[in-house]
Design brief:
365 residues, 3-stranded antiparallel β-sheet
Length: 365
């Protein structure tokens, strides 16, 4: 962003606008500066490797300008008797009525903090609206990789951690290169078609990978998740509630309604079913917390995925490995009762709150 104007010039433009936003000359200068800062910051993020929601990839300059204008449309919004509400609220909270005494350079630094923070926030919002599956898919595969079937081989950075199947840990090929992206996409797609559940899909990817003896039979976490997202987007999620409605406003209402119902169910299951099992010493308080996490994951899978995994898979994800062998004789009845009661309560709450006639839910197992 250097070279647009120095901080003193920038700050003076901002101060003039804050003092008299209705003045056309002041507003034009302020808008030009804000637009330049916005496009410059988007170019900076893109240079760092961030994936931006650009509509027109063939003309990056035009796409960045369009994205900047989309962001500024909400950033510069006004409300009745509250012009440019975001900007004035920020400066009032930060300086009160003392902005006039601030040096232009200080006003510039403060404004950039506000603008760049808003841009990051708005980019996250745009991505979430564009694909409500993505964050839930990422979460699901992170949980699966942390399960007992997988071994984390290296890296203190969670994003670049390397994973392999536990059963292949003694057969690693550390001197071979990682699989190329196109080949990885083929494997992920083949495993997708072979399997229904997310746990099986992930397991199948590593099983297929092991057959490619010219490459390592391990994957970098973010490379795997990126490939999963690409392949998932190619397929129609027939069993997902997100297949409709296409209207974004309806989608937002629907998501808010269902997530509220889910949270209410989590609170209810904790205070009644799980509290009862703890009181009767069927499970410990710590195990009750783990069961609540399993309920949360199960309900999220019902909402966002093609389906749900088998119940023992959720048990293994949340419980210590030392307890896994005791599932059948020690936990099965309690755990499955908890899940089934949670689904029943959630369905009741969601249907009761569904005023728009678009309720649907994949069948659970």
């Amino acid at each position: 962003m250097a070279g647009i104007v120095d901080s003193h010039q920038c700050g003076q433009i901002i101060k003039d606008f804050l003092a008299c936003p209705q003045d056309r000359a002041h507003f034009d200068a302020f808008f030009k500066l804000t637009r330049q800062f916005t496009t410059g910051f988007l170019r900076y993020l893109r240079a760092l490797g961030h994936t931006l929601p650009l509509v027109e990839q063939s003309n990056i300059k035009q796409a960045l300008d369009d994205l900047a204008l989309d962001i500024l449309g909400s950033f510069l919004r006004s409300e009745p008797n509250k012009p440019f509400v975001i900007i004035f609220r920020y400066f009032r909270q930060k300086y009160g009525d003392d902005i006039d005494s601030r040096k232009p350079a200080e006003a510039c630094d403060s404004y950039c903090s506000l603008l760049f923070g808003y841009i990051r926030q708005e980019l996250s919002r745009i991505r979430a609206k564009a694909d409500p599956q993505v964050e839930k898919l990422k979460r699901r595969f992170r949980d699966i990789l942390n399960g007992h079937n997988y071994v984390r081989l290296s890296s203190t950075d969670d994003r670049t951690a390397i994973f392999c199947l536990h059963k292949y840990e003694s057969q690693l090929r550390p001197n071979r290169p990682f699989i190329e992206r196109d080949q990885l996409l083929e494997i992920v797609d083949r495993a997708y078609l072979d399997n229904i559940k997310y746990t099986e899909w992930c397991y199948g990817i590593f099983d297929w990978l092991n057959k490619y003896t010219s490459v390592r039979n391990a994957l970098i976490k973010h490379e795997l998740i990126r490939a999963v997202i690409v392949v998932n987007s190619r397929h129609v999620l027939d069993n997902s509630i997100w297949a409709f409605p296409p209207n974004l406003a309806d989608w937002e209402i629907k998501e808010k309604t269902l997530l509220k119902a889910k949270d209410e169910t989590l609170n209810w299951i904790s205070k009644t079913v799980l509290a009862g099992f703890v009181e009767k010493e069927k499970i410990t308080p710590d195990h009750g917390i783990c069961f609540r996490q399993a309920v949360d994951r199960y309900l999220l899978d019902l909402l966002y995925s093609r389906g749900v995994d088998l119940l023992p898979a959720y048990f293994r994800e949340v419980m210590p490995k030392s307890e896994h062998p005791r599932y059948l004789d020690g936990y099965k009845h309690i755990f499955e009762t908890t899940i089934h009661k949670a689904v029943e309560d959630f369905q009741h709450r969601a249907k009761k709150a569904d005023k728009f006639g678009f309720w649907s839910l994949p069948n659970d197992e």
